[in-house]
Amino acid sequence: MSTTVLVTGGAGFIGSNLIRWILRHRSWHVVNLDALTYAGNLENLRDVESDPRYAFVYGRVEDAAAVSQVLQEYDVCGIIHCAAESHVDRSILSVEPFVETNVRGTLVLLEAARSHGIERFVHVSTDEVYGSLGPNDPPFTEESPLQPNSPYAASKAAADCLVRAFVHTYGMPAIVTRCSNNYGPYQFPEKLIPLMITNALDDQPLPVYGDGQQVRDWIYVDDHCRGVVAAYERGRIGETYNFGGRSERRNLDVVYSILRILGKTDDLVRHVPDRPGHDRRYAIDCTKAERELGWMPEISFDEGLERTVRWYLDNQSWVQSVRAGEYRRYYQQQYGWRMG
Ligand code: NAD
Ligand code: DAU
What is the pLDDT of residues 38-88, one digit of tens each? Predict the structure, then answer.
């Protein structure tokens, strides 16, 4: 019988890239459970929606009855849990949805996985649970303490702890992955790279928080997706695997690189007030994933950024439809000064 995997949050940025990657590289069937929040967009999967190995189910991960029905109806044997509220700035404005989806949703999914005898559960988490690094600190390893600083990071750390407790207490066959900042096609233009590309294309100001010297470790989304599948297939139960791109960059340098690729001038850059509690630096040591999973990031930042800018240039109707929707209304209401 063929393997059926449930991907939660498959209409989002990483989930949609993951589903596309799985359908291309594996013979599995994939069920996508997604609540289609502002970040969930079925356009992201238009090219695979008629694949007989793919099915979409509309629903929330906190809805125990819906989750249970999906697991039963599709005879799901494994879960890759991507669904989340994912944007730090939104978590600063309103914490509750982050606790509801990221914490309670993960708990409901774990309970359902347990009662349905799911064989594999990969919880897709983030390096933000480790907190912030100083300029000379070594990168985060899987042994780094959990020190989440934003409500988003705290909700992800809480979910990670629930996964750990289910492994320890109930023998849940679960694995946690923690990845650094992703970029690539279909990323909602509220995150740094797609926001800067789409604003620059419209000759709109590029809002850089504070001094723009914060550092992130960028990974092309396909590299992350390969890592998640490697963890699903070869990860040891109860273990955590870090993924990163070995590509630390200061935010301002990322913005300047985008402007250079687009042939735009630096005077679009605007320094705006800093994000409250802004983490200064993330960097990931992914030696364990390289050693145990035989995984490594393959796409350099320069190549990935060129590809990403090209994708946004070639898909301006996607950008326009996203920007005409809730995204624009939300940000004009909350952050009119940032939209220019
Ligand atoms: P995203 O915001 O683009 O997508 C989230 C998806 O989850 C959307 O399709 C949304 O509709 C869905 N969703 C939200 N709440 C839901 C609910 N209650 N029930 C069902 N579906 C719901 O996020 P992303 O950037 O693709 O991130 C995916 C996962 O990867 C998240 O768990 C995030 O924490 C993690 N992660 C993201 C990054 C990154 O750089 N984007 C890095 C590391 C880890
Ligand atoms: O590290 C992994 C995390 O990366 C994921 O878990 C999150 O889901 C994802 O959103 C991302 O979090 P960040 O806060 O690092 O990403 P964001 O794209 O929001 O911001 C990247 C950096 O750019 C950060 O230092 C804040 C800054 N920034 C961001 C925006 C949106 C700006 O200077 N201006 C902006 O307008």
Answer: 999 999 999 999 999 999 999 999 999 999 999 999 999 999 999 999 999
Q: What is the CATH number of the domain that holds 230?
A: 3.40.50.720
Enzyme catalytic residues = 127-128, 152
Ligand 1 mean position, distance from CA 86 (Å)? 5
Ligand 2 atom having least distance to the Cα of 84: 8
CA of 50 to the centre of ligand 2 (A): 33
Structural domain boundaries, residue 33: 4-182+221-243
Closest among 210, 299, 317 to 21, alpha carbons compared: 299
Q: Is residue 205 part of a domain?
A: no
Residue 264, in any domain of the structure? no
Computed from CA positions of residues 187, 267, 316, 190, in that sequence, does the dihedral angle turn out positive or negative?
positive
Domain count, the chain: 1
Residue 309 lies in a domain: no
Nearest CA owner, ligand 2 atom 23: 192
Which atom of ligand 1 lies closest to the CA of 15?
Answer: 26
Q: Give domain status of residue 298, yes or no.
A: no
pLDDT over threshold 50, residue 338? no
What is the gyration radius of the CA atoms in the chain, in angstroms?
19
Instruction: Tell me the C-alpha distance between 54 and 299, whole Å.
Output: 27
